[in-house]
C-alpha cells in the first residue's frame, strides 16, 4: 500500500472507530445524515431501478462486485430499491435471497471487519481487502462474471485517470454480456469547488472533514487526499479506451448529476469563496423537527460569476436549477404571508409543468393544514415536502453535465 493510501486508510479507520460506518446513523452530522438517506440514496435507487428490474427479469439470482464497498454500501443500496408498484405490500426490486454472491472490496480493514459483522448472517456475502489503485485482485477475476459491478459515493475518484481506465478495462474483460458497471465519481463543475473548474483533468485536493461533528475543527487538523474531478467528456474518453483494450462494446446508458447544491462542501466553503449552509438546513427539514425560516435556503451564487464562462453548459444547468430552487422558496414566502394574489400569479406563470403540479400540491397542503392531526404542521409536513420538491427538481435533469458533487455513470457491457 502506498504511503498516501495508508494515510487515507488510517483516516477511514478513525471514522470507523467513531461509529460513522455502522448500518445506520441518524442525525445531521456523520456519513449517513438525512440528505444522504432521503435525497442521495433515493436519487441513486430511482436512477438504477429500471436496470436492476431488467436484470431480475432474466435472472433468478445475480452476482455483485462492490468496489470500495466500505461496510456494505452497495449491498444496502441495491437491496432497498423500491418497486415501481404503489402497493403498500410491495417488496423491493432485489431481495437478499436473490443475490447469489456479493463481494465487497475495500482498502480499509476496519470497514471490512464492520461489514463482516453487519452481514454475518447473510449467505453469499463476503468482504476482502483490496487497493483499487492496483486493480481488482486476480483471485476475484478467476470467479464467474458478476452481473453488477458497482462503486458508490466517489470511491473511484481516488484513482487517477489511467488507473480508472485500467480498472474499467478489468471490469469490461471480466463481465458478461448485459453486465452493468455502476459508479459515482466527483463532478468537476460542482458549485462547491469552483477553484477546480479551470483545471485540466488531474488529481486535486479533497477532504472528508465533514465527518467530524465539530463544525469548528481547525484547518491545521484537516486531512487532505488527492482525487480526480471528472467531466462527462473525460469519462466517455477513458471508458471508450478501456472498452477498446478489453475488446468489448459498451453502451453508455446515462450520466447523471447528483447533489448539485446539497453536496457536503457547499456548507464548508473549503474549495470556494463562500460557505452556504444548504445541506445543514435540508438536513434539519428532513428531521421532521425544524420550524425555522427558509431565508437561508435561498441560493445566491453571485460569488461564482467569475467562473461562468469556463463551461457555459454547466453554468446554464446550475443557474437554471438555482432559479427553480428559489422559485419554490418564493412561493412558500407568499403562502406564509397569505398573499393569495401573488400565489395565484405565481402558479399560473410557472413554466415547468412537473414543478407546477408539485407547487400546486404544496399550496393545497398549506391551505389545508387543519386537516392534518399534527402539532407542528411545518416541521412534520411542509418542511420535509419542500426538501423533496427541491430534490425532485435535481432529478428532473436527465442528462448530467458534471456539475454535481457526484456524477453517476451507468454502463452496459456488450459481448
Would you kindly provide a brief summary of this structure?
It contains 13 helices and 9 strands. The chain has 415 residues and is an alpha/beta fold. Helix 10 runs antiparallel to helix 13 and helix 12 runs antiparallel to helix 13.
How would you describe this protein?
α1 crosses α4 and α12 (353-367) runs antiparallel to α13 (377-395). β2, α4 and β3 form a beta-alpha-beta unit. Helix content is 41%, strand content 15%. The model is unreliable at 14-28 (pLDDT under 50). The chain has two domains: 3-269 and 400-414, Vaccinia Virus protein VP39 (Rossmann fold); 278-395, no CATH class. The protein is built from 13 helices and nine strands. The two termini are 34 Å apart. The longest helix is centred in the first third of the chain and has 25 residues, at 34-58. Strands 1, 2, 3, 4, 5, 6, 7, 8 and 9 form a nine-stranded mixed beta sheet that branches. It has 415 residues and is an alpha/beta fold.
SSE arrangement:
Elements: H1 3-17, H2 34-58, E1 62-67, H3 73-78, E2 99-106, H4 109-118, E3 125-129, H5 138-141, E4 148-151, H6 161-174, E5 180-187, E6 203-207, E7 224-230, H7 232-246, E8 249-258, H8 264-268, H9 278-286, H10 312-336, H11 340-348, H12 353-367, H13 377-395, E9 406-414
Parallel strand pairs: 1-2, 1-4, 2-3, 4-5, 5-7
Antiparallel strand pairs: 5-9, 6-7, 8-9
Compute the number of helices. 13
User: Would you count the extended β strands for me?
Assistant: 9
Count of structural domains: 2
Strand residue percentage: 5-15%
Q: Biggest sheet, in brief?
A: 9 strands, mixed
Given as residue ranges, the uncertain stretches (5+ residues, pLDDT < 50) are: 14-28
Mean pLDDT: 87
